[in-house]
Batch of 2 targets.
Target 1
Amino acid sequence: MTVTIVGSQLGDEGKGALVDRWGGDADVVVRYQGGDNAGHTVVEDGAEYKLSLVPSGAVRGTIGVLGNGCVVNPSTLLSEIDALRDRGLDPDVRVARRAHLILPYHRVLDSIEEAGKADDDDGVEVGTTGRGIGPTYEDKAGRRGIRVGDVLDRDVLRERLSYAVSHNRAVATGVYGLDVDDSEHADAFDVDALYEDLLTVRDRLLEDEMTVNCSDFLHRRRQAGDRVLFEGAQGTSIDVDHGNYPFVTSSNPTAGGAAVGSGVGVTAVGSGEVVGIVKAYLSRVGSGPLPTELDGNDHEAALADDIRERGGEFGTVTGRPRRIGWLDLPMLRHASRVSGFTGVAINHVDVLAGLPELAVCVGYELDGEQIDTVPTTTGRWKRCTPLYREFDTWDAFDGAAVADAGYDALPEAAQTYVDFVADAVDADLYAIGVGPDRAATVELANPFDRLDE
Ligand code: IMP
């Protein structure tokens, strides 16, 4: 029995709040893609934990697994675990032996490639998080990556490192003109230094019995009756296949990624629940087109500022202010089709309260034609003019009281808004986020209960 949580937009939809909520009903929470480019805050008993790699359930004693589809920076992983231990927790984290490692040279290459693009006037900069995600997935696809399992065998590790480092050094020197040995990054490309560091990682992984054959581990847990929650990071529109390429991350946040990135069969993932998490407006960190962006004039910029401030729209990992736009239904329809949503949760509905106006993009006009889905090329998407439907706004309300009292206590205009969105993507409405506090959620259905029905 599995529940998969997927970001429907551009990441930062507030997936963490629902993973926290429903993760309590799971025995195992699995991340299946991405790495420490994700960031979420878990609040448990009033204490706040900022995590980017450790699955959030680990804070409350659920087993957290980083699947083979993840890219793992071992220093981030071990320091997050240590920080949780320092605060009296004992997180049970397992890492797939088939997952790939983010090593220091990946971060260096990520930042120098981005810096080079930023100097270019062609608008090719992606605005990555600088965590080395892209270069690590490149090495994976290029068959020169180093996997968690490789670290466990000293000889294999040495051999794999020698090959991977020589290739990445050649890229740094030949493509980017970096004088590696005479730079602050010398250690990042030094086989001996990397080898020594990874031996320390190896000791920790062995000591804590952290590594698993992910597919086999999850198979056995599921056979024993465990409930598995797949925690997607990022979102559909930055999926490397289904997003607005090249302004994407390098993995598959969409639901198909849960099967590939964990070794659990597609039939198991597909016969479970797939819940799309939607933010009631759009935010984007990083570059790329955003047809509904509120940046056309001073009035729109003021609306965006208001939403940004109220919604706390600043990157969790990078602190960058996020770009803001109206909700984009073509984007959501695409997300629902790609992942096969059984339900949706709509977050940040409180943030829209009291706005002077409210609109939803219901389709686009492109080259004189009306279309209702996102074009396959970013160039065409950029040329789309949104077609809006206006909605009545609603007054500010007490999120905690509404969460307690349930859906009927929501202002009527807010009910109309969320019902319209769920209808448009042909999925049931499972939850509505009505406040920054995790408890401020109106729950209409729990996906694990749905599976029991
Ligand atoms: P990367 O994943 O660091 O390579 O960044 C690629 C693109 O994905 C950039 O536009 C990032 O801003 C975006 N991105 C990566 N992770 C997240 C996330 O967790 N939330 C929102 N955007 C993200």
Target 2
Amino acid sequence: MKAKILVNKNFSIGEIDKRLYGSFIEHLGRAVYGGIYEPDHPTADKDGFREDVADLVKEMNVPVVRYPGGNFVSGYNWEDGTGDKSKRPRREELAWGVIETNQVGIDEFQQWAKKVDSQVMLAVNLGTRGPQDAKNLVEYCNSENDSYYASKRRENGFEKPFGIKLWCLGNEMDGEWQICHKTAEEYGRTAAEAAKMMKWTDPSIELVVCGSSGPGMGTFIDWERKVLEETYNNIDYVSLHSYYNNIDENTPEFLAKSTEMNKFIKDVVSVCDSVKAKKRSNKTVNLSFDEWNVWFHSRNDHVERWSVAPHQLEDVYNYEDALLVGCLLITLQNNADRVKIACLAQLVNVIAPIMTENGGKAWAQTIFYPFSYASNYGRGTTMNAVITSDKYSTKHFKDVPYVEASVIDNKEKNELVVFAVNRSLDEDAELETCFEDYGKVTLIEHVELYNDDLKAINTKDEENVSPVNVPLGDDLTATLKKHSWNMLRYKY
Ligand code: AHR
């Protein structure tokens, strides 16, 4: 099969905000306890954080990490996770039916974020709590005043404010599984008032309002419209969440699911802009795709109720999951004009690229690799490339191109970076690239992720899926193997 990418230096889609490569740590399963934090682990630092995990997170180059939930946040008292650890309460945690020990809270998490060179994206509880508690948390984290919550922070040993700039106004408030789920009207009003109080406390913060928990929600679009009509002037981004699965064991259909993500993004952009027009506003609300991933392998797990940090949602990802994650990243990059923030959900153990064993090893799952390369090399401007390849159709998707690709111009490095997935299960693609107005362009690197077995996995002892460098030819053409993920770097 032949495929072609045509890029002209003058035609771009938009600047990639580095926060497109964010991730997410929720108080859920072993994400925190046994994941990032394990004081008895041989690699634990003086604060109890695992160095082996921190090293893998740094390798992924994650600029922002959403915290502390997720469903968890809708029942969370943030004060429980501050101050003297020996006095912190053990709580019955209703979102996931476990006991929360509160040994990690915002005091510790912001330290961990610094350790891994990241920023915190902090969610407030708009389920069981409300605007006043949200305001108090902003004061605790960001205020330099001689005031109650800023002084509490100083008493807890943090003289300087944490300086948290990005905040989520609750989580998935449209979902009836959410603790204190709300209607769009109820949530819109609460979010608008919380937003005002939070920004009055610190005008430099940015706020993400909850959109739908997925495009399959019955209230999708009406929810966004109503919530945005209430909050438009007070917020900066609207959230999108979506998880993808291969429950039907149909790989061509599964690999086409990034087109569903693309449609979801376009639909949310439309509703944002229609509210903008209705309000005669000059302000543009952009998108925060702050939960996305493949999620289904762990769906039949049994978790013991009221246990502490159980094995929960520990999806073991296979090679075809990595291919879809590659396609989803390409989709996010190709929507860089409107999607400014995105969080791979999640980061460690819970539906995550990094797995650990308690007291033992930490390792990279298959999906670790497309993410790391995208985050490390996918920085700059997404180009408006014309990509042509053969297409296929499935029951749910029509005219899916076999080759899915993005082209990013990194002007600081004079580099063009192509991310490309060949979705064909039986044919290699000969990729021709044509870069107009760039002068001489040279292919300098071709990294490939490939395994003949679509179900291959990585374990603590065996790395079956990992990238390799492909020897380069004399010209700009490259072979994209059947069902492979690729990164091609060019110098100009
Ligand atoms: O990421 C796991 C869960 O998925 C989150 O807690 C929730 O927001 C979503 O439903």
